[in-house]
Design brief:
mainly beta
């Protein structure tokens, strides 16, 4: 039997997709929930035999996917963020590009000596969630090429988890719309962001269960923000009827002054008129879609 307190996630960057480096230097990655796994696909036999009992099903494919969910903190997940944007950090900024970054990862159940290795992991989707009150979270949806299992720890060295102060709603800075602060005119109470890289597995005959490649498609970027209903909120609401464009900037960080700043230069929105009772504070949620210009994620270390 295994304890949840004795599970770990080790990860290392690959130079070639699907190939774990020799003598790898594994980093232990903190997480709050983990669903990375392999799921075999089966095809039912349609052979007619002498009797009513079927021939059963056969394994015809393997899907390697799952989420790494984490409480956001500064620098801890920068390699995965770069992979999500398909780019390198350039002058401490990320935009959507075409630089493929992949990882090998190990799910370790240390107390029973059980280890599952996943190779060729791409970040298929990235999601950011900032609640009205609570911890800010990152979610990385992974898509991989192959898996294996062992009863011994992986080769190489394993570094202890680097723990940093976790981000909360209190660390959110001045949110701006078209360059003007929203605080006091349209109070934002929650914000979300999702980048979907449109990953699809290219399966090749002769490769067994392994996927030949994971190929990215068009980047679809969307999210939502909830605002208290006000004159400014009503102006945002009207934008949807003229396909009006907006620019959003959302900074978030920790008490020490480390932060990220997410800029969305061109978005369109849609939303509904608020509804509520006599004792309610009226608010509405706007869904937004990014177009034309890549979002930019900047990182700023404390002075």
């Amino acid at each position: 039997m295994s304890s949840g307190a004795k599970q770990s996630l080790y990860i290392v960057a690959e130079a070639a997709a699907g190939t774990t480096p020799n003598n790898p230097k594994w980093a232990t990655l903190p997480f709050k929930a983990l669903s990375l796994d392999g799921a075999p696909n089966k095809t039912e036999s349609d052979t007619v035999v002498d009797g009513r009992i079927g021939r059963g099903s056969y394994i015809t494919g393997l899907e390697i996917a799952g989420d790494i969910e984490a409480n956001a903190s500064f620098a801890t997940y920068d390699a995965l963020l770069a992979a999500a944007f398909f780019n390198e950090w350039k002058t401490d900024a990320l935009s959507v590009g075409e630089v493929r970054k992949t990882f090998s990862a190990v799910r370790a159940y240390r107390d029973i000596g059980n280890y599952h290795t996943f190779k060729g992991l791409h970040v298929a989707k990235f999601a950011l969630d900032i609640p009205e009150e609570g911890l800010i979270t990152f979610k990385f949806t992974m898509a991989g090429l192959e898996r294996s299992q062992a009863n011994a720890a992986p080769a190489g060295t394993v570094a202890a988890a680097a723990l940093a102060e976790e981000f909360t709603n209190v660390g959110v800075g001045e949110i701006t719309l078209d360059g003007a602060p929203l605080r006091g005119v349209a109070c934002v109470t929650a914000f979300s962001f999702e980048l979907d890289n449109g990953m699809k597995a290219q399966k090749c005959l002769g490769a067994g269960l392994s996927a030949g490649k994971q190929l990215e498609g068009r980047a679809s970027i969307s999210g939502s923000f909830t605002v208290a209903w006000s004159q400014k909120s009503a102006e945002i609401y009207e934008k949807q009827f003229a396909n009006g464009k907006l620019a959003l900037v959302v900074p978030f960080g920790d008490a020490a002054g480390n932060k990220y700043e997410l800029s969305l230069p061109v978005v369109t929105v849609k939303g509904s008129l608020p509804s509520g009772g006599a004792d309610d504070l009226l608010s509405t949620q706007f869904e937004y879609t990014v177009q034309d210009v890549s979002p930019v994620l900047k990182r700023v270390a404390k002075p």
